[in-house]
Design brief:
mainly alpha; 6 helices; elongated
Length: 191
């Protein structure tokens, strides 16, 4: 008799989805804060914090080094990026150059200088300048060739410095080049 009657709840109005809407109701602030909260796992000491930072940096450096070796554009240095530089690398890597053997030759010359033979001493006197002239001439020819090829293949791209880039790469020992060579010696199809 004295019961309070609750009026019947009207049915929920149909959800109208706006064309640019997110399609779900906005969560309450308390719910959003609960989802955002994570236990803080701060290191106990500064030493631990530095150790974690160094470990994370080491992992990032290893990943970047691996990406650079593979030639991944994202990890390459600015000087190595772009299709023109990739073409220059392939152009140089497909050739055998005197410059790539320069360090071995210089080591052999140093060993020859230790011998007490007069002919070896004479060779030690004239071989280094002769080798350097040959390497510079080879670098000049490589530079001209890659500039011509880059202008032919990539007319809209910036080819500034690509000749020097190719010449410097030609003087590196093939095994130590970064990014690693993608083409084999004598291979012309990629270049």
């Amino acid at each position: 008799m004295f019961k309070r009657r609750t009026p019947e709840a009207p049915p929920d109005p149909p959800q109208v989805v706006k064309p640019g809407g997110k399609g779900r109701p906005t969560p309450k602030r308390s719910e959003a804060e609960k989802r955002r909260r994570q236990p803080i796992t701060a290191p106990a000491t500064r030493k631990e914090a530095y150790k974690k930072v160094r470990e994370r940096q080491a992992v990032e450096r290893a990943k970047a080094r691996e990406g650079m070796a593979k030639g991944d554009e994202k990890h390459l240095l600015k000087r190595d990026r772009g299709p023109v530089r990739r073409l220059a690398r392939d152009y140089v890597d497909s050739r055998r150059t005197v410059g790539s053997y320069l360090m071995y030759a210089m080591f052999a010359i140093v060993l020859l200088s230790l011998l007490p033979i007069p002919a070896a001493r004479l060779l030690v006197l004239f071989a280094p300048p002769l080798l350097l002239v040959v390497v510079f001439a080879e670098g000049f020819l490589l530079s001209r060739g890659i500039k011509r090829l880059a202008a032919e293949r990539y007319p809209g791209e910036d080819a500034k410095g690509v000749g020097m880039y190719a010449a410097m790469r030609a003087m590196q020992i093939r095994r130590l080049r970064i990014p690693n060579p993608r083409v084999r010696l004598g291979e012309k199809d990629k270049v």
